[in-house]
């Protein structure tokens, strides 16, 4: 039997780290290839919808340096999420770590369409938890993914 090809998506949130601990614990003795991915989001009009700020009007007022700083910060957060997540997976180390770009759901769906993994594993909620049972990224992946999605809840404290 060939190895299970799994994509583990992380944003460094408690929920995504719980998903990584689950993979580490449950898949350590299995034949599995884990590709660890995080998404750097380009500072576009989607950023301005968070926190009640107008949709896109501020984008036109931003200079190139500010946009570049936001982009670098997003890439740094994605790299930090990969590092923190890989560090808690000693028994099931990722075979590859990738920073994807774009909106998280779009980037993850595109990656899975191009690489055909057997499974996507995500945490239940990301950094922006609005008291919902399932976060917006995990919910959208359940709706749009062509491969199975495993949504892992947070561990008990």
TrEMBL record:
Superkingdom of the organism of origin: Bacteria
UniProt-listed InterPro entries: Rossmann-like_a/b/a_fold, Universal_stress_UspA, UspA
A Pfam short name: Usp
Residue intervals of the UspA domain: 5-152
Recorded family membership: Belongs to the universal stress protein A family.
Record's protein name: Universal stress protein
Organism: Sulfobacillus acidophilus
Lineage: Bacteria, Bacillati, Bacillota, Clostridia, Eubacteriales
């Amino acid at each position: 039997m060939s190895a299970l090809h799994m994509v583990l998506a992380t944003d460094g949130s408690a929920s995504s780290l719980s998903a990584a601990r689950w993979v580490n614990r449950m898949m350590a003795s299995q034949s599995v290839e884990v590709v660890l991915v995080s998404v750097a989001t380009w500072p576009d009009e989607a950023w301005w919808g968070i926190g009640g700020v107008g949709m896109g009007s501020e984008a036109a007022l931003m200079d190139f340096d500010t946009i570049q700083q936001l982009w670098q910060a997003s890439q740094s957060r994605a790299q930090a999420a990969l590092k923190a997540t890989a560090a808690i997976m000693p028994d099931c180390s990722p075979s590859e770590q990738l920073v994807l770009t774009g909106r998280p759901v779009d980037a993850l769906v595109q990656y899975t369409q191009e690489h055909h993994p057997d499974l996507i594993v995500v945490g239940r909620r990301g950094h922006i938890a609005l008291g919902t049972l399932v976060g917006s990224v995990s919910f959208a992946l359940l709706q749009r993914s062509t491969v199975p999605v495993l949504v892992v809840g947070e561990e008990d404290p």
